[in-house]
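Minutes, project huddle
Topic: does the predicted pose make sense with hypoxanthine bound?
PN asked that the exact inputs be recorded in the minutes so nobody has to dig through chat later. Recorded below.
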Amino acid sequence: MGKTPTPHIEAKAGDFAKTVLMPGDPLRAKYVAETFLDEPVLVNQVRGVNGFTGTYKGKRVSVMASGMGMPSIGIYSYELYHFYDVENIIRMGTAGAMQPDLALRDVVLGIGACTDSNYAKQFGLPGTYAPTASYELLEKAVSVIRDMGGIRYKIGNLLSSDAFYNDNAQTTALWQKMGVLAVEMEAAALYMNAARCGKHALAICTISDSLVTGEATTSQERQSSFGDMVKIALETA
Ligand code: HPA
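Predicted holo structure (C-alpha cells), as shared on screen:
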C-alpha cells in the first residue's frame, strides 16, 4: 500500500472495502450508500467526489464516484488499487447503444473495452492492447443476473470514447461494423489500470440512449434501471 491520503482522496488506509462500486455521478454514489448500504460512512469528499463504506448483507462494500471520462476514472481507480489495497472495482454506468438489438434499459456487461483514447500509450507496448474485464467478476455478475431473472442483458465489447460530442459522425459506423455493443467513456482506462496492477474490474452499463434509433430514456427510467444495476453490482461484490 502506498501513501494515504492521496492527491485526490482524503480517506485513510483501510477506509475502503476490498470492492468499490463506481457510478460516474457523486450524487448517485450518495444515493447508493444511503439506499442500499447499512451504516454507510463518508470516507471521501474531495472535489465533491463522494465515497462511502458500509455493509451489504453483512459484506463490507464501498461506493465512490468516478467522474466522467478516462482521465477521471484513471486517477480514482489508480489511487484505489495502488494506495488503498482495493481489489475489485465495479463500474456502474450508462452507455449509448450501437446495435439495433439493444433496447433502452438493457444491461451491457463489457467483456472488453475498445477505445479511441491514447491511455495505453503510457505502457509503451509494442502493439495494440486489448482491455478486458475480470473473468471472475464477469462470471459472477452473469450468474447474479440469471438468478435475478427478468433482466435483458448482453455481454460484449464496449467502446470507451474520449469525445461525447464527436465531430466525425462516421466513426460510429466503423465500430458498429466490428460488433461493438455500446459506447461509454470510462471502461478501457479502468480495465487497463486493473491489469497493470494485477487487480479486478468490471463495467456494468445500462443503455440510456441509442445511437441507432435516437431514443433516450427519461430521468425516471434511468433511476429505475440504475436500481437494477446497483443490485447486480452489490450481489457481485
Ligand atoms: N456516448 C458516450 N457516452 C455515453 C453515451 C453516449 O452516447 N450514452 C451514455 N454514455
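Observations noted during the meeting:
- The chain has one domain: 19-236.
- The chain is about 30% helix and 25% strand.
No decisions taken; revisit at the next huddle.
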